[in-house]
Write a structure and sequence with these properties.
CATH architecture of chain A: 3-Layer(aba) Sandwich
CATH class of chain A: Alpha Beta
Low-confidence stretches of chain A: none
Distance between the termini of chain A: 14 Å
Radius of gyration of chain A: 16 Å
Mean pLDDT of chain A: 97
CATH superfamily of chain A: SGNH hydrolase
Oligomer: homooctamer
Strand content of chain A: 5-15%
Shape of chain A: globular
Number of strands of chain A: 5
Number of domains of chain A: 1
Strand order of the largest sheet of chain A: 2-1-3-4-5
CATH topology of chain A: Rossmann fold
Structural class of chain A: alpha/beta
């Protein structure tokens, strides 16, 4: 287990992690953490490592891009003084190119995306650990234009993670493996938002990365 | 224009045509025809061919397969005495193989699908015209397993149409052409249910087939 | 086709164009454009002229008069920097005289109406094209007091359009022709707000005016 | 006053009288009578003729034609043993010709309409008084096709009333007079369903006919 | 008829006149005037005196006392520049003594009530006519403590009206006469808020006072 | 305490006891007993006499008259095999005479009322105790026509109770005493349905009658 | 009876007393006091001591701790000028330690709790009487960690009460006695929020403490 | 892994497994399986053993006792032809003794409970595996009356399982271990219905029992 006892684990991201979490900070009883992967990760932590006392906090917000995260970084990351930070972002940076093809002023290029990620690293001090959770598409055809661009941003995030000594958590790899057995339409209507099985898959992938469980 | 004046044009199918149509028969004022392509087709008929007085009737039902259509054929087709009949079916025959992979008792094989279509032809007498509207997937990758199976059913419908002298309306071709310019995620969350642009595209494709409009 | 590629086409008007459009600016996915004629026009543009990449934006607001448009002209027209502008206004300028006969302080006279339209022209710079979309009433009796006053405003708009080299789109003519075949009660409860067929008719009339389609 | 004391006054008709009345019989406290003219008539009877003790009962049903009334005549008229009967019907017999132009199997011709009214007279025994309340359209243009057909049915009802010694209550005349001062759009969106002023106008016209009030 | 043509008739009061009126000023189409007596009065004015063109405006607010009226007098009376003003107030001044017996800081004494009414007269200039509409209770037992106090306030209003040359409209007398024939429970659950018959009764009483109709 | 241990106490009546009780039989957890006096009585029994284990069951139904009770006596009384039965009925037998003055076929005369009560006694065998809970009106003026008729039915119930050796619980006396201190409008809008204080007053009056508590 | 006539009795606390009370101050008609014990206490006061005219006011707020009370003490206690004050607080001070074990910044220690209570005493002047209503848990196992900590806070409140000459009302004792006969699951899902029987039990316990009733 | 490939795994039980599952049989996409442990178990099966193709079906129904299960055994177990059956029942058999202490006709004794379980075994033929999932209470105090009775039924189920060669899955042991670290109020309001962490804990316990995962 790579996390220290009694530490705060903060997750910031987009709708994948939001799923109805409480505002301003999602945590605690009832639906505080929402119904997405942060809730499942919290459950796994309580069941598999109750002695660690890890406190999961969720500040994911639907629709956010890497640019939007930076705009709320002070209140939603710095002020909360996390010990560990997980950044799950990028899908919306890409998606808008395809579902809103005329609104080019809201597009985030891969260069801007990488720069935004680097800026997040630069302005966040005192972390005990930093996790980059990759963008993904539940689409196995790598020639699909949407998937191809996701792969580009995925690789950009990986590069930022490596350069800064952060951990890169590859959700695309996890989903690709899963879809060797099932078609994506069994998990998601839009190939982005997972069903509960997908959230468990994401949470397990993170739990593996922090050493809580093994394959 | 291939339709005779003052005739009834009946559309039977699945959720693509349903979109909130009235029960038991969708037609007439307000939301009677629903908000899908039958409504748009009715509008095009009124605007482009008001002198024909074509009466559009909609008995599409969400979730239906070719098997489900046959089960309600007497009340929903025979009893309504249509002059022209359009059959839009097949997507659910295929979809269940992928989104409900364990429920094999509800799968319709391509052989059963073709046989069902043939049976529809055999038991429907006195039509002035019969239209088969193809299944489709808003997916341009022909190697995608879902798309590949759709293509198989699409071809099976085409064969039944040809064999019986019916008109085959190729929606897959229409969508494929459209997606040369846009990615499918701009039109649909699930690559099956169209947005209003998609419904207009379908209605225009039918209007072309019945000679009401030209390209 | 009279529109240049990759340009913005902005529609400002009243409830005919509003029909649930998003705020502050209606565009993009889902119900952003509302369910009225701007949505249909966007669909026709995508289907018939995908290579042009025309971006439709909708700032129509229910209940607005020409006076109300001017009050929000800066934020809703100037700030959005449209390439093409379509102004659909006038019905409420007239209607209030008949449905609220005692509230004379909210009436807009035909002189004020014409002056408001001229002011819109004067303060809007840099357009590549300007379209005036006429007021109308789904009433074929030209002696009806409401219709007679609509005709007066309709002609006033036409004069402003001609004087300023703008295109005048005559919806009244389009509806009058349609109602040679159908009674207005088949399209509208209040002879103002169209059903989907009416919105398609309006969108087609605009599409004809911009040279996208031909009769 | 032409009604006998402590008698039952039953109103059967369409949506004009329905307006939310209770089922199976609308009467009594709260919203029992609905919010249309039967409620207002009951109020006028209580205020102007409390000593008569007239009991108003409402069995009007939205959408009904003369044919539909006959189908429920036994339960809704005969079984209720009214002393006085008021029949308000005919607008839907006409309206469907214009708003549902293709559904000709639901049209009621003027001959069938007159025959239906005569049948109502023939099968209803023991009345102390019978009132025919005319169909109308809030449209002053007598050349309008809808108004013209309404006038035809209006005259047909008048003829049936005269032939059978019943009282004919001419709502069209009452509305025409009112619209010398106001345009119909000030009273109704669809020129059929009145606002509260219209219901008061109808109720007063009936109250005049039964001699409860004078002009 | 005592009102001049084309004048504004403003009604200020409590829940008896409110009944869902629009904010900030209730008037015009649809439910603008609410469903209480102001709506009925407007209907009577339109039907019986259309040539007068009287504009009814409603600023009654549920729960108000004479004190509450004064607090909004500037915006709701002075600023609206009425020609005629009708003040319907007092029931809540009394009612609170009985239904909230412990909250004495919200009670309005009869002296304060009279002073409030006088102040309304003093600060309102330029009226063509002023009407005081009396408080009432649908209770015929004059020894009932609630009724007895209502009578006291009723008389206080009458005195203010006489002293200032205003017209006093006695609703209590109108209701008392009505309840010679019916028990109050047939008109109201709480003996304060009328059913539609009660609103018609109030509107007729006002119409009589302004000379629009005669008994 | 007059009730035997571990016995069933069944309450049948009208809306006073109904107040949202569960169907078919109101008892047990949550809102099973409703929110009226049966719920309060159950609470008093649990707090003051937990050792008795009395099971309260509620079959009161809004709007019921003595006649309506008899129609469901088999299923709602006999079949439930109560040890003790409390009958709270009569207000609706009277009320309809005043709030629905024209619907005389639904009136229950005092003779029919008394006969209905006697019949209840006659057909119910094997009770350990029978309680008649009096009708009442929250009106202190005994000359009020409604109150006067309530008193008549109240006395009729008392006579039936005395004749059959049943206990008569006088709610009117309890309310009259309470209203020496408060006006009825502080407890009820319609002088029939109590607020929570009224339900506690009723429950206490019953608890006194069964000897559970003393004044 | 220990309360003086015509005095104000203010209750401040947490969700136990809140139960839907009105804002900003809960009192008076309808649901003003909420549906919890303050409502029942008000009813008992009206029924058992109407001559005292005690005015009950409720400013309990769900979720509050002793710390939260102090933050609104000026507006919710001082400004309301109570004669008697009842403080019902402490459960949330304890509960959070168990249901939100990671959010230690919101925990209130027993020392801070006692200090908060003392501060309430210190800053509240001019009371005729002060009541401390104890925290409790509907759990009879004193070794349960939650119950054990409640007991600690309960004793701390008792000590503050004694030290300051205030009355201590021991709800835990009242509940413990009740649960000799019933299991806590019959009264509450979460062992904190009472059902109506529990609220009656609390109100009676307070009524006993103020000498209004005797056992 | 103890389950054979491509087999059906049917879960029958009470509200713990119900949690909104579809009717008549919960399975498949969306919320078919509900949001309780059957959904989580299905996710674990798909992620950890996709090659097994196990089909999870859920026929748990809120409120059911062992007696209620038997009443629907034919339609909900036999007719569905499961390969593996998991029976999760008993909490309601016990709970009613404590939350509905007077309704003894609905209690299920431990003898009847054991007999019911045995009958389930006897009438179910052709299973490849049978799992008994134990009742539990999230209460660590074994002297608590509710917990003590749960333990009794838990042991009875274990005995039936052993006697019949079925697998016994001990949820009580799993929860007891979990509550060494957390208080039950952190997981459940009523100590019966788990939060998502509890459902994951149950699903994992079952997954361990079927050999899908190891500790």
């Amino acid at each position: 287990m790579k996390l220290e006892k009694n530490s705060k684990f903060l997750i910031i991201g987009d709708s994948i992690g939001d799923f109805g979490r409480a505002r301003p900070v999602g945590e605690g009883l009832h639906a505080g953490l929402g119904t997405g992967f942060p809730r499942v990760l919290d459950s796994i932590l309580r069941i598999k490592g109750p002695e660690y006392g890890i406190r999961v906090m969720n500040v994911c917000t639907s629709g956010d891009t890497s640019k939007a995260l930076l705009e709320r970084w002070q209140s939603d990351v710095i002020d909360l003084k996390p010990d560990y930070l997980a950044i799950e972002i990028g899908i919306n940076d890409v998606w808008r190119h395809f579902d809103e093809p005329y609104r080019n002023e809201i597009f985030i290029s891969v260069e801007e995306y990488a720069a935004n990620l680097q800026k997040m690293v630069d302005i966040t001090k005192g972390l005990k650990g930093l996790y980059f959770i990759s963008p993904y598409l539940m689409e196995t055809n790598k020639k699909d234009a949407f998937r191809a661009m996701i792969d580009e941003y995925h690789d950009a995030m990986k590069a930022v993670a490596l350069k800064n000594g952060a951990t890169f958590i590859d959700l695309q790899a996890a989903f690709d493996k899963y879809f060797e057995h099932f078609h994506p339409v069994s998990m998601s209507w839009d190939r982005v938002h997972p069903d509960p099985t997908g959230h468990l898959l994401i949470a397990r992938t993170i739990a593996l990365a922090i050493g809580l469980i093994s394959e």
